[in-house]
Input
Amino acid sequence: MADGIKEIIDSLERQRTAIENALSALRGIEIAGQQSASTSTSRRGPAKRRGGMTPEGRKRLAEAMRRRWAAKRTASQARKASSKRAGKKAAA
Output
């Protein structure tokens, strides 16, 4: 009978150890979840980029804008010239 009680006590102690291990693992998950939740709620929106544009990129962009405005300017001048010619023909 004493052996039966000893086996029961050993079994309960093993269960207690397993339960304590499970509880500590769950507490670890809970703490990690709270930390990640607190860091994600403190940010608003996506993280901002740092560094900006490189000098090479700035030069490429400036050149592209110059070409764009030059094309727009020549197209505008061509329209003005053609409308002036059309006006002179109508007056003649």
